[in-house]
Structure formats: structure tokens, C-alpha cells
Sequence to fold (294 residues):
Amino acid sequence: QRSLLGLKGMSQPELVSILDRAAYWDAHTEKQVSVLQSRFVANMFFENSTRTRFSFEMAEKRLGAEVLNFTSAVSSVEKGESIYDTVRTLESMGIDAGIIRLKPSGVLQELAEKVNVPLINAGDGNNEHPTQGLLDLYTMRQEFGELKGLHVAIVGDILHSRVARSNLWALQTMGAKVSFCAPDNMRADDIGEVSYISMEEALQADVVMMLRVQLERHAVGILKSAEEYRLQYGLTEERAARMKQHAIIMHPAPVNRNVEIDDALVESPKSKIFPQMQNGVPIRMAVIERALRN
Ligand code: CP
Fold:
């Protein structure tokens, strides 16, 4: 079984092979193929999603798979059924792979060890979001040709960000330099060798990746004022004008417009935010195919 639980520890050849396969699907003109005909994939989202859920579904359908959509709010989870019992239930019905998004960190590994179908992590707590990391790498490679030597500054709510962690592990493996920039109460102490830099220094990076302020994960009082945050750590139009000419803006979305990034920048020429979403489909095609190939 070829689960994808995270990018930490994934080798450079493995990362490259997924990116290359995504490029193959990206260039594929046929909208739907029958590579996964008669294979059943369940999307199990125990936490809300728009981009990840629908791009997985798009990817599965483009590959010709049969798709089952599970949403916890209208399931027996509401009656107290556990995540494990839910996944085992779908497994016993015959799914071939499961895409799973979870609120808590640290339970996915154990879950994957207990079931026999491959699981693909669609985001687990603040731990990892591997397909987001892969689509981000793909977007950077598309822009710059290679990842080695790039300086990527990840700015904002690092503490609560699975996107920051997945990007960090994969970018370091690929030879890019990653720096973090965050207010003191949004820094993470559990992540290895990364330097924290100022906002001014972050503006000199090749990639300025802004993170969403994740209010739903905050303890009370972490964000005192959205306007104050914007002034200190937001990518304002004035700051973006000081970025390098070739540099790009990224953000995993959803975006808090005029908090971590100014409204006018979201679809500005430097912004790759919508291309990131577009790239989510071929990346997820590559990952699902990897999980189910014989
Ligand atoms: N970037 C991302 O994971 O978005 P969703 O929460 O909408 O899936």
C-alpha cells in the first residue's frame, strides 16, 4: 500500500517522480481517462475544505475512479462514532483508497497502520498537508525551473500551519532555503533548523508565501487586532512593491483579504494563488495513481 501521510523523510527522487507525473497529467489533453476504472476512492473529510476536497474529487474523476464522498457533519460521527470505526466501515465496504482530513494531529500514522487500504493525508491538524506542499513545489518549479537554491520565506501563523511544515520538509530536501517570519506568539518551537527573519528580509526572498491566520485553531487572544497584524506582518501593496522583480507571492488559501494579504494583491501579476489551486488537480492525480498502481 502506498499511503501518503507526510513529506517529512520523503526522498528527493520520490518527490521528483510525483512532480514529474503531475506534469504529465497537466499536459494531458483528455479530460478523463480510465486509468482507475472500477477503483473506489473515498474522500473522508472530518474538517471543512473547499480546495483540497474538490480537487481530489476532480482528480479521482479525471482518472476514471468511482468516488464516495463522506462528510462528518451528515454521518454517524454525529452519533459519536470514532474516526477509526468510520474508516474501517468504509474499508469493509470495499474502498480501494481513502483521502482523509482530520482535526487532530498525530493520529493518522496509527490509523494507517490499522487499515489495509492506502490513506492519503488531506491535512491533519497542524502536522502536515502533503498534497498542498507538493502543489506548492510544483508551482515554484513551474515558475523557476528548479527548486535548488531558491529562497522561500514563509510568513505568518507558522504555529498552526501544516502547510508550513510540509513545505519546509520538502523544500529542504530539494535544496531550497526556507526561512520563517512570524510574530512571537505564532512561532513554532517544534520544527528543526529554520531561521526566523524580519518582514523586510522576507520581502527579499524569491518566494513570499503568506499563511492564513488560522483563527479557528487559536487559543483566545493570539490575534489581538487584524489591522495591527496587517501593519506588522501583512503583505501590503506597499511591501509587495519592494519585492524582487522576479519574485512571486503564494498563499495556500482560503485568504483573509486585507489581513495577511491585501485584496489587490490576490490576483496581481506576482500572485500564484489561483495557479496553485489549478495545480492541485494534477498533483492529486499523481498521488492517487501512486497509491493505487499495481
Ligand atoms: N488550501 C487548502 O487546504 O484549502 P481548503 O481548506 O479549502 O482545502
User: Anything to note?
Assistant: The domain at 12-127+277-292 is CATH 3.40.50.1370 (Rossmann fold). The chain has two domains: 12-127+277-292, 130-273. The first strand starts at residue 40 and ends at 45. The two ends are 9 Å apart (CA to CA).
